[in-house]
């Protein structure tokens, strides 16, 4: 079991239950899943794009510990040199043990490696208690070998919770250790 998950069950659940007045521990917000994705936005030849996608798939496998899914174009768009079925990006949905391991790695190893890091935005909630986080460089993860990537790419992570409000979700993620930026 992940140490972050143990902290959640032993310390964070009672603290949230007291803070928001939940009657049972089942009403306390919890993490459902983390969806991580990266897109290949450069207009390249389809053959080059598929090579880049293969490279990104390998990077995602190293970062998340799970086989990612390749996202494909639904429509052809001539202006973008895009055909239906062309690979556009890579995504992975993490649940359970892998979700907790990824979040722990993100909070304790990856985010502190960001240059001039002042915290993540406290305004990236969607109103239903989910949080979106954009990471500018995939090289902040220790598994990525800088010499084996063709270019530095950004990725997005969406942390989906069972919280009903942004305030509940913010409190949950703050107690889990997500470093939010200080308001001035």
Tell me the layout of helices and strands.
Elements: H1 3-20, E1 31-39, H2 46-64, E2 69-72, E3 87-94, H3 96-110, E4 131-135, E5 155-161, H4 166-176
Antiparallel strand pairs: 1-3, 1-5, 2-3, 4-5
Helix pairs in contact: 1-4
- CATH homologous group name of the domain at 3-41 and 90-176: Ribosomal protein L5
Strand content: 15-25%
> Which stretches are poorly predicted, pLDDT < 50 over at least 5 residues?
none
Strand order of the largest sheet: 2-3-1-5-4
End-to-end C-alpha gap: 37 Å
Helix count, DSSP H or I runs of 4 or more residues: 4
CATH level-two architecture of the domain at 3-41 and 90-176: 2-Layer Sandwich
In terms of structural class, how would the helical and strand content be classed?
A: alpha+beta
* Largest sheet: number of strands, sense, barrel closure: 5 strands, antiparallel
The beta-strand count equals: 5
Query: Briefly, what CATH class of the domain at 3-41 and 90-176?
Result: Alpha Beta
Coarse shape: elongated
Average the pLDDT over all residues and give the rounded result: 81
Radius of gyration: 18 Å
Helix content bin: 25-40%
Give me the strand/helix succession.
HEHEEHEEH
Question: Which fold name fills CATH's third level, the topology of the domain at 3-41 and 90-176?
Answer: 50s Ribosomal Protein L5, Chain: A
Give a concise summary:
The protein is α+β, with helices and mostly antiparallel strands and 184 residues long. The chain has helices at residues 3-20, 46-64, 96-110, 166-176, and strands at residues 31-39, 69-72, 87-94, 131-135, 155-161.
């Amino acid at each position: 079991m992940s140490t972050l998950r143990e902290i959640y069950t032993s310390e964070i659940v009672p603290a949230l239950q007291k803070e928001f007045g939940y009657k049972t521990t089942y009403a306390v917000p919890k993490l459902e899943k983390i969806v991580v994705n990266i897109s290949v936005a450069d207009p390249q030849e389809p053959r080059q794009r598929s090579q880049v996608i293969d490279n990104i798939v390998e990077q995602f496998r190293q970062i998340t510990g799970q086989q990612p899914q390749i996202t494909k174009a639904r429509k052809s768009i001539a202006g973008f040199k895009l055909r239906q079925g062309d690979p556009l990006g890579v995504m992975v949905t993490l649940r359970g043990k892998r979700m907790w391991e990824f979040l722990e790695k993100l909070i304790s190893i990856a985010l502190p490696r960001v240059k001039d890091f002042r915290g993540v935005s406290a305004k990236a909630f969607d109103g239903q208690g989910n949080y979106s986080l954009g990471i500018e460089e995939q090289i902040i993860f220790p598994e990525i070998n800088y010499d084996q990537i063709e270019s530095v790419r950004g990725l997005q992570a969406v942390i989906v919770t069972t919280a009903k409000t942004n305030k509940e979700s913010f409190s949950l993620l703050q107690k889990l250790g997500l470093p939010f930026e200080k308001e001035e």
